[in-house]
Amino acid sequence: VPKKCQKAREHFGTVRTQLESLKTKFHEHWRFVLQRLVFLAAFVVFLESETLVTREAVAEILGIEADREQGFHLDIEDYLSGVLTLASELARLAVNSVTAGDYSRPLRISTFINELDSGFRLLNLKNDSLRKRYDGLKYDVKKIEEVVYDLSIRGLNKEATGGVGGEK
């Protein structure tokens, strides 16, 4: 995973160059691309550190501004949309991790996604595309909970958490 993350980070250099040429173009035209790039940056950061990347860090990775006043920038809506795409991909990763025999990763993903869901619940989202994307997060939470529940039923979560009293 670290080698793949490093390779992905190298590609962001090319992205920075391309975005530099787009700074003078109409911003709304590139929303979908920026949302996908936010997702990719967030996914790489999650794989490296299992943390949520900040909007400022994504802007830095992409070589654009975080603040509107400074020019071509990363809108908060684009950032949040990319983070919601991350949640969907992490739900898939939880299932694939179990298939690969990694029983602890789904538990960590579950904790992360539940914290993410808690944060989104604090927002007052209007009835727009971001709200619809957020509604999809509920299904991602449910999918991951089912994976964790299946691990528990099969007794595999003991291996993931170190078992009772630290035994495996």
Helix content: over 70%
Strand composition percent: under 5%
Please tell me how large the radius of gyration is: 18 Å
What is the element string, with H for helices and E for strands? Answer: HHHHHHH
Structural class: mainly alpha
The oligomeric status of these chains comes to single chain
Mean pLDDT across all amino acids: 87
Largest sheet: number of strands, sense, barrel closure: none
How many alpha or pi helices? Answer: 7
**Shape, principal axes of CA atoms:** globular
Number of domains: 1
Gap from first CA to last CA? 26 Å
CATH fold naming: Methane Monooxygenase Hydroxylase, Chain G, domain 1
Contiguous runs where pLDDT drops below 50 for at least 5 residues: 160-168
The CATH class name reads Mainly Alpha
Task: Report the strand count.
Answer: 0
Query: By CATH's scheme, which homologous superfamily applies?
Result: Translin, domain 2
Describe the structure.
There is one protein chain. The chain has 168 residues and is mostly helical. The chain has helices at residues 2-22, 31-49, 55-62, 76-99, 105-121, 129-153, 157-161. The chain has a single domain (1-154), classed as Methane Monooxygenase Hydroxylase, Chain G, domain 1 (Up-down Bundle). Mg(2+) binds at residue 89. Keywords: Cytoplasm, DNA-binding, Magnesium, Metal-binding, Nucleus, RNA-binding. Its main location: cytoplasm.
Short description:
The chain has seven helices and no strands.
